[in-house]
Amino acid sequence: MTTETRPADHEIRDLERVTIRFAGDSGDGMQLTGTQFTRTAAVFGNDISTLPDFPAEIRAPAGSLPGVSGFQISFSSSDIHTPGDAPDVLVAMNPAALKTNVGDLPAGGALIVNSDAFTPQNLNKAAYASNPLTDGSLKPYTVFEIPISTLNERSLDGLDMTSKQKDLTKNFFALGIMFWLYERSMDPTLAWIDDKFGKRPVVAEANKRALKAGYAFGETTEIFHTHYRVAPARLGPGTYRNITGNEATALGFLAASKLAGRQLFYGSYPITPASDILHQLSGYKNFGIKTFQAEDEIAAIGAAIGASYGGAMGLTASSGPGIALKSEALGLAVMVELPLVVVDVQRAGPSTGMPTKTEQADLLQVLFGRNSDSPVPVVAPATPAECFTMAIEAWRIALKYVTPVVYLSDAFLATGAEPWRIPELSELPEIGVENWTDRATFQPYDRDPETLARKWAVPGTPGLEHRVGGLEKADITGNVSYDPDNHHRMQLLRQEKVARIANDIPDLEVHGPPSGDLLVLGWGSTYGAIRSAVERLQADGRSVAHAHLRHLNPFPRNLGEVLTSFRRVLVPEVNLGQLLMLIRARYLVDAVGYDKVRGKPFRIAEIEEEALRLLGESARS
Amino acid sequence: MTATDNTNGANGHGLDAGPGGGAATALSPENAEMIKLTRKDFVSDQEVRWCPGCGDYSILAQTQKVMPDFGYPKENIVFISGIGCSGRLPYYMNTYGFHTIHGRAPTLATGLKAARPDLMVWVITGDGDALSIGGNHVLHSMRRNVDLKMIMFNNRIYGLTKGQASPTSEFGKRTKSTPVGTVDTPIVPLTIALAAEASFVARSVDTHTEHLQQTFNRAGFHKGSAFVEVLQNCNIFNDGAWRDFTDREVREDRMLVLEHGKPMIFGKDRDKGIRLRGLHPEVVTLGEDGVTEADLLVHDEQSEEPYLALMLSRMFWPDFPVPVGVLRAVPRPTHDQLIEDQLTAAVASGGEGDLEKALFSGETWTVE
């Protein structure tokens, strides 16, 4: 940017909500750019929701279609639940990013492209027969062609860096433009750059200059006639931070350990998208949290069970493929009845599937993917921030009922972010369990009459030496038993223990009328899209309600009643109808599924249209 | 100090979430005399259900006999097993016990020991459990130097599933699953343990009760991963697997009892020895061709690099006498200690974790 350009006169417009998508090469730093915009918007006080969308390949060939990485953020002055159906603004750093993303941009949407990247070579890599910047194909959009690479390099004149190194900072130039366009302060990002690159002053300087140059470009250039203001959201009072689902999950486990007064032991094997939980928990060593990167998924859960056997809170996490490997050990935990939490951050499958893409198709796997009847309670957070409370809830159940619990997250929740009102410590629930120490009354498989939790004694307790294991246990004594009637009784007891948790969880809440034409029932990360769609329909005067399950096993006691209070029930899922199958089987309700497994979350409009279709009406225009 | 005063975690309250939680000062084995226990204290009320004549009876008996040696109160001892005939052993020990799933006992032991460094942890396994389905876990528990004592019953056969070839079965062995002979080359357990950086590696024989006791005693006192292979007879499905060199009449001539710092001499007449020729061992006779004791290899279980132990692990009947005893015993920091050290260091540098601070960390903003 040169200083000769005079600041242009710009109109300022207020908007309620804006959705931006940054798209570029996976080496272009799009996740970082998106994250920085997110932090800035969050600290400013907007409600936010994000959708990172990146390839499994760390660095696919530069400029290629599979190498495109995207980050969508929606920020708003009102309460929002999703990262937006479609972007208002698309920032495309190269032809491949344009090609893979422009289809999502509605007509009239703003398109900012790095025109420098539209070389014949890059066009060829993106399989463009002609240059979209000149062939008229972008006519439906408001296109801003900016030679970002050139302008950025010019702003770095005099720095001791190669051209290639300079080019790596162009994402900050683009970010600077967006900061100007939406009236954002650069301060949080400037501070971040200092913190991150402080030890490499030249790199820090280059990134700061790039950011400021982008901002100045927006301010002084004639190409933008307007910039926009999105006021802070009217969130409830409290202190907030921006948080992803994985971060909230890890913090929830940390809190659970403190609340229960027990050591947390985390055994894990790296797997996308669960690894961040390991990264975060391994930073809590001063809390006494022990993390263990195991040799494989089986060792990870084995070690967690071993730790639980010793009286710690054994925790393990993975994604679908790893959960498959852990299933035998999870069955062991069911048999020995020890507290354990198994996190499944679901991703698209089967097999390796699409490791970085979201899906919620492991529900039946965690419920039934073990030999024999092997009941395990299952909980599922609905939003990134809710991961915190549900992580504590998983431990509440695991400890109180002395049982393994599965916690179902997914890639969208794990990597998506939203503002989180940080709870005061006094708001957190009381959780925990006492180990058995009394010799006179101890029998390893004697149970609490109310919860059916067995008496849990840990090694080191004098006089309570006993043996547990995977072989069937005699009721009360816990000795090995092949008695037919005993096995039948034990199977029923294990099932009943889990079933009784229903007495100890909240009723399913219905958002909307308690009865009516249509109930939209969901679980997990579909919450935002369903809630938004239902609220739109309600605003249109439709008799529609939303209910969202956080407990998948057992179900809340009132679920059957809720289901039968509506004429129709729609169950949108990012799988091929798993919850649907469960509720149809359990409640004999003629519910209808709506399934999309594209590795992406639902759009609001999709659910809205399906709901309308079910209501027997055509979609509104 | 009494035994029970020192059992942190016994009542659940001791498992403080703070650093070192659950990590009572381990009773040092030197305290053995303070806790007067006998073999009987370690016999559980469960009926032993191995086949009559099985080598496992002897292993159980020697295990129960050596337990009082270590000075741990029995509630601080845990036996963890996998699947197979060996897997039943914990039921017969009047300690805490966990009969887990096939091949995974080392993983549970790793987590237990990390969470509860105050406990003495034994892993009971077999050749199929440890080297086939659980091979990976043996490898990694050894390289981490998890403070566990692994007793591997090697009978060269799958007994509990009624007679299939195991990873230690001889090449060409005919079994139910290999009617015309196995085509798999057997693996040598001790070589595997050494390659996995085990800090204690030993071998003994089920019927050599005194030697077996001594070996268990050494393993129990070792701080870190101890791997003990016990040559064990399955009289039903692989009777006499080791008879050629373990039988009373021949064993002195066909086995080499290792002793640290002593020359490798064997034979009824103590006239045979092991000499190094180039990179290979050879059997020589003392007094023949001018061979004297000074020519023989001297056993060194503490040598920093495991060359000698690896060589010994490869020696086997009929080419060589079969070495028994401790091949390797070296000090190395244990897994649980290293973990504890990191927690201690984290507290020293960052102070005790503060949950409120953690929740409110990062950039926050307040809405009135």
Q: Overview of this structure, please?
A:
The complex is a heterodimer of chains A (621) and B (368). Chain A has four domains: 11-230, Pyruvate-ferredoxin Oxidoreductase, domain 3, CATH 3.40.920; 241-427, Rossmann fold (3-Layer(aba) Sandwich), CATH 3.40.50; 437-493, no CATH class; 510-614, Rossmann fold (3-Layer(aba) Sandwich). In chain A, 35% of the residues lie in helices and 20% in strands. Chain A contains 20 helices and 23 strands. In chain A, helix 9 (245-260) crosses helix 10 and helix 9 runs parallel beside helix 14 (386-400). In chain A, 56% of the residues are buried. In chain B, strand 8 (265-266) and strand 9 (272-277) form a beta hairpin. The relative contact order of chain B is 0.11. The chains are: A alpha/beta (621), B alpha/beta (368). Chains A and B meet through helix 1, strand 9, helix 9, strand 10 and helix 11 of A and strand 1, strand 2, helix 2, helix 4 and helix 10 of B. Strand 9 of chain A pairs antiparallel with strand 12 (364-367) of chain B, so a sheet runs across the interface.
Largest interface: A-B, 80 and 83 residues
Poorly predicted regions of chain A = 1-6
Q: How much is the average pLDDT of chain B?
A: 92
The total count of strands of chain A amounts to 23
CATH homologous superfamily title of the largest domain in chain A: Pyruvate-ferredoxin oxidoreductase, PFOR, domain III
Q: Number of helical runs of chain B?
A: 11
- Largest pleated sheet of chain A: 7 strands, mixed
